[in-house]
């Protein structure tokens, strides 16, 4: 009997152990079910330990070569006084003193959706050593020590690892990082001989290379002061230029710095812009500095002395006296804060409150060089040189070229310009042929005096050799959009001067094409433009707002230059109504017949049967009729870095990563897709645009496509196609240029290259997404239709018409009174009807209360990017259930059935064109 208590105790312990074991097994089972059945996070974790396949390794090697080629042609030699570059011909040039904290911690990529692993990126020091430059080791050690420990020391030190500016969904808190104190250069205690660090540097070599950088990223705009020299940078330049006569400035930034300071330092003889160079871009920078590569890039933006000199700056955000933008800029005073229902997102620290902001694109078409050149040409009192340091399209070479127009003729609606290019220097190099148009101006339609019409990168031309090139300009491309009188594109009669220029400002040669009568591109007069499927007419009257306040009076008296006035801060009722959405009824839409759903065909059609079938073939209608409402609702809400599969019809689940600078499985998309692999980090879009080379852009697209196939990706949330309206947007690095023709031609070529490889490119963010701050909290964008079409839609239009894009991502903001992802004028009337787009439209991350998924369906959108559903988070079925509820509502069921069928057809047609369906 004395053992009984022990036995009872043991029995209780066994029970506890059994219970604990059972709980553990349940937890393990739950984790496994969540990670491998409900989601794919388990596969993502396993992928971390899976070695790269031979196909992946080959794709990385090829992509790294492409990165270097892009950089070689995209980096811009902005200035080269006294022929300082290339640095060759003796130790005074081949021995380099590197200055600037960013010389040892460069920015390779931006933050946010484009973020990538930059640890593999080639460091500047290593690239320079690879070109046989000898670097001042003492300076390197001082910078390494200061970066690593905050102390100034000559002790041998390790270079820091790459990083610091490419975090995912994080404010770019490293826009600048602290410079080495100027006092360090005058410190006499570092060396035993009592000489200073600067004196020893000068004894090492007479050449200094200074690196200045700015990082950028999603979610945050750059302040005015962020794009000006800091006090530390001024002290650095004072120190370096006080000791060296030969200074090279390396600009490692995507947003345009205010560069008037280069005029204050005559010692800065050469300026090389490298943007964000990506994985192997620094190899190109070193090769350009050594002369192994002749630079041929041209600026994609206008670089000025004062970024506030552009009229758009006054209607970007509210500027404070300290050079920062005010929080909650341009907030409608009568819009009550509308907290999002997602408490989970609020708990994660994300502000999803819809407050209601506005942004007036009051400058109209006068963006970038179109403002500076037009004002120069029309305002006798304007001092162009005081504003503009490096014009749009500017770039230097180590050789010289002579260019002239040999002939020009127009036939069948196309103007062909024949250009002769001769290399008159002593080094082989490439040039850029830039053709601009100066149209007749009557005052009836606003027009810039200078408009990029066509461009071409030459081949590598040997010294003394001459080559000939033909550039074609469709006559329709010279038309302007007349939103006031005719409501369509109009080509006014008169003389159109086509000028060959070395940049937007400098004329080399010109010729004139004359038009004897107005051509009005509408059905009443001369018919639609040849490139349109239906006539382009006014679609965005509601985006104009109450007033049209555009002015071409350059005296800064108009609202385009002064910003909003008091009355602008009160939202009209139409804005208040736009914050909520109510589905139209079938009766209101005149719908009476329910479409066939869930049809059981005698011989079921599989998606493989639809490969290569034109979208207007009736076979597609038969295929779609097999889908049920539940299948379609699930498909249309499966867009969290994926497109959901329909197994019974052979439609695969697709992985579609984010990342305009490469095929990236990041911290969000990787667990959802079940993939951990990523491709290389490419130079950012603005670097590629600065190559002015469509062939190079198509090569990048094809290389990305090859990586996608090796990694198992079928879609790509890229490229970014928005406009550099101002230098301040945090996402300018992932957009191409201030000009729509340049952006469209380069971006369209990328899309073509990737699409030909079977990748769905979601060109983004459609449209008018040129500001990061508050654009997720209900940002109403107002603009006239001429600016919308000629400036902001132009890149997307070219990417659809020429690039053949099968994907589009809509934007967070409103276009006038309608959320862009639910704007029928944008998604149906323009994108699909006018441009002939046949692919899938996805929303941007759909986690804000005004992004109604049913509004998306009615407007012509297809797919909701819902990461909460992808992660099976609380509320993750809300969007699907919202669609199901509308489809089951007797008042809306017909419209929703038709809308879901249309959207499903759009999605599955795009899927049928992917590489894994070929």
From TrEMBL:
<comment type="similarity">
    <text>Belongs to the glycosyl hydrolase 3 family.</text>
</comment>
<keyword id="KW-0472">Membrane</keyword>
<dbReference type="Pfam" id="PF01915">
    <property type="entry name" value="Glyco_hydro_3_C"/>
</dbReference>
<dbReference type="InterPro" id="IPR036962">
    <property type="entry name" value="Glyco_hydro_3_N_sf"/>
</dbReference>
<dbReference type="Pfam" id="PF00933">
    <property type="entry name" value="Glyco_hydro_3"/>
</dbReference>
<protein>
    <submittedName>
        <fullName>Glycoside hydrolase family 3 C-terminal domain-containing protein</fullName>
    </submittedName>
</protein>
<keyword id="KW-0378">Hydrolase</keyword>
<keyword id="KW-1133">Transmembrane helix</keyword>
<dbReference type="GO" id="GO:0004553">
    <property type="term" value="F:hydrolase activity, hydrolyzing O-glycosyl compounds"/>
</dbReference>
<feature type="domain" description="Fibronectin type III-like">
    <location>
        <begin position="431"/>
        <end position="504"/>
    </location>
</feature>
<dbReference type="InterPro" id="IPR050288">
    <property type="entry name" value="Cellulose_deg_GH3"/>
</dbReference>
<dbReference type="InterPro" id="IPR036881">
    <property type="entry name" value="Glyco_hydro_3_C_sf"/>
</dbReference>
<dbReference type="InterPro" id="IPR002772">
    <property type="entry name" value="Glyco_hydro_3_C"/>
</dbReference>
<dbReference type="InterPro" id="IPR017853">
    <property type="entry name" value="GH"/>
</dbReference>
<keyword id="KW-0812">Transmembrane</keyword>
<dbReference type="GO" id="GO:0005975">
    <property type="term" value="P:carbohydrate metabolic process"/>
</dbReference>
<dbReference type="InterPro" id="IPR013783">
    <property type="entry name" value="Ig-like_fold"/>
</dbReference>
<dbReference type="InterPro" id="IPR026891">
    <property type="entry name" value="Fn3-like"/>
</dbReference>
<feature type="transmembrane region" description="Helical">
    <location>
        <begin position="16"/>
        <end position="37"/>
    </location>
</feature>
<dbReference type="Pfam" id="PF14310">
    <property type="entry name" value="Fn3-like"/>
</dbReference>
<dbReference type="InterPro" id="IPR001764">
    <property type="entry name" value="Glyco_hydro_3_N"/>
</dbReference>
């Amino acid at each position: 009997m004395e053992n009984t208590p022990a036995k009872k105790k043991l029995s209780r312990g066994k029970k506890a152990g059994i219970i604990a074991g059972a709980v553990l097994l349940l937890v393990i089972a739950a984790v496994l079910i969540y990670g491998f059945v409900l989601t794919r996070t388990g596969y993502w974790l396993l992928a971390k330990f899976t070695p790269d396949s031979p196909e992946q390794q080959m794709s990385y090697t090829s992509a790294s070569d492409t990165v270097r080629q892009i950089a070689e042609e995209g980096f811009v030699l902005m200035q080269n006084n006294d022929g300082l570059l290339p640095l060759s011909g003796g130790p005074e040039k081949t021995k380099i003193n590197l200055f600037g904290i960013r010389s040892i911690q460069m920015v390779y990529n931006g933050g946010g959706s484009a973020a990538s692993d930059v640890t593999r990126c080639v460091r500047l020091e290593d690239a320079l050593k690879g070109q046989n430059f000898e670097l001042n080791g003492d300076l390197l050690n001082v910078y390494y020590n200061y970066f690593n420990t905050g102390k100034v020391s000559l002790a041998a030190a390790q270079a820091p690892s790459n990083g610091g500016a490419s975090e995912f969904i994080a404010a770019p808190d490293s826009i600048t990082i602290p410079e080495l104190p100027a006092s360090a250069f005058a410190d006499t205690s570092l060396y035993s001989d009592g000489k200073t660090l600067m004196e020893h540097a000068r004894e090492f070599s007479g050449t200094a290379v200074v690196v200045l950088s700015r990082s950028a990223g999603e979610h945050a705009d750059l302040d005015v002061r962020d794009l000006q020299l800091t006090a530390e940078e001024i002290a650095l330049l004072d120190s370096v230029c006080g000791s060296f006569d030969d200074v090279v400035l390396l600009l490692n930034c995507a947003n345009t710095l205010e560069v008037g300071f280069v005029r204050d330092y005559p010692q800065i003889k050469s300026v090389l812009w490298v943007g964000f160079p990506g994985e192997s871009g620094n190899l190109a920078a070193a090769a350009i500095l050594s002369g192994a590569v002749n630079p041929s890039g041209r600026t994609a933006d206008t670089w000025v002395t004062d970024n506030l000199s552009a009229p758009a700056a006054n209607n970007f955000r509210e500027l404070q006296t300290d050079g920062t933008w005010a929080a909650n800029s341009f907030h409608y005073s009568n819009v009550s804060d509308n907290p999002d229902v997602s408490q989970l997102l609020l708990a994660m620290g994300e502000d999803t409150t819809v407050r209601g902001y506005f942004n007036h694109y009051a400058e109209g078409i006068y963006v970038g060089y179109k403002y500076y050149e037009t004002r120069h040409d029309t305002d006798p009192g304007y001092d162009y040189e005081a504003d503009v340091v490096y014009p749009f399209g500017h770039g230097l070479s180590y050789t010289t070229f002579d260019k002239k127009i040999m002939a020009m003729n127009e036939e069948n609606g196309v103007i062909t310009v024949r250009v002769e290019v001769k290399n008159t220097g002593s080094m082989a190099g490439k040039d850029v042929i830039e053709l601009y148009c100066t149209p007749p101006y009557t005052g009836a339609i606003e027009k810039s005096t200078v408009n990029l019409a066509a461009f071409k990168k030459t081949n590598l031309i040997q010294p003394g050799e001459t080559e000939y090139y033909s550039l074609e300009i469709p006559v329709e491309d010279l038309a302007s959009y007349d939103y006031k009188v005719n409501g369509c594109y109009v080509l006014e009669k008169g003389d159109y001067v086509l000028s060959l220029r070395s940049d937007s400002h400098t004329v080399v040669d010109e010729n004139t094409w004359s038009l004897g009568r107005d051509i009005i591109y509408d059905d009443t007069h001369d018919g639609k433009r040849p490139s349109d499927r239906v006539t382009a007419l006014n679609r965005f009257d509601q985006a104009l707002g109450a007033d049209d306040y555009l002015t071409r009076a350059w005296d800064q008296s108009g609202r385009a230059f002064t910003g909003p006035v008091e009355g602008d801060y009160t939202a009209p009722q139409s804005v208040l109504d736009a914050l909520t959405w109510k589905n139209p009824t079938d009766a209101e839409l005149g719908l009476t017949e329910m479409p066939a759903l869930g049809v059981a065909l005698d011989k079921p059609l599989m998606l493989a049967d639809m490969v290569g079938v034109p979208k207007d073939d009736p076979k597609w209608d038969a295929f779609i009729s097999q889908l049920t409402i539940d299948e379609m609702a699930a498909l249309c809400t499966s867009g969290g870095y994926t497109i959901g599969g329909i197994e019974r019809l052979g439609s695969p689940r697709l992985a579609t990563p984010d990342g305009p600078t490469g095929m990236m499985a990041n911290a969000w998309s990787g667990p959802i897709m079940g993939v951990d692999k990523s491709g290389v980090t490419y130079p950012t879009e603005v670097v590629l645009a600065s190559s002015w080379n469509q062939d190079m852009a198509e090569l990048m697209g094809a290389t990305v496509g090859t990586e996608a196939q090796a990694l198992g990706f079928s879609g790509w949330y890229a490229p970014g196609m928005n406009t550099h309206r101002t230098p301040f947007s945090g996402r300018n690095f992932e957009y191409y240029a201030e000009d729509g023709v340049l952006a469209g031609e380069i971006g369209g070529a990328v899309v073509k290259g990737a699409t030909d490889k079977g990748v769905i490119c979601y060109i983004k963010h459609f449209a008018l997404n040129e500001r990061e701050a508050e654009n997720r909290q209900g940002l109403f964008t107002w603009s006239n239709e001429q600016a919308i079409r000629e400036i902001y839609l132009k890149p997307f239009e070219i990417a659809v018409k020429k690039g053949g894009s099968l994907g589009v991502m809509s934007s967070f903001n409103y276009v006038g009174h309608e959320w862009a992802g639910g704007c029928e004028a944008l998604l149906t009337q323009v994108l699909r009807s006018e441009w002939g787009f046949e692919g899938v439209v996805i929303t941007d991350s759909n986690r804000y209360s005004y992004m109604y998924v049913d509004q998306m369906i009615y407007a012509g959108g297809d797919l909701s990017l819902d990461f909460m559903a992808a992660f099976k988070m609380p509320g993750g079925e809300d969007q699907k259930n919202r669609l199901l509820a509308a489809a089951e509502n007797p008042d809306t069921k017909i419209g929703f059935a038709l809308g879901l069928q249309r959207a499903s057809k759009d999605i599955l047609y795009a899927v049928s064109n992917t590489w894994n369906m070929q």
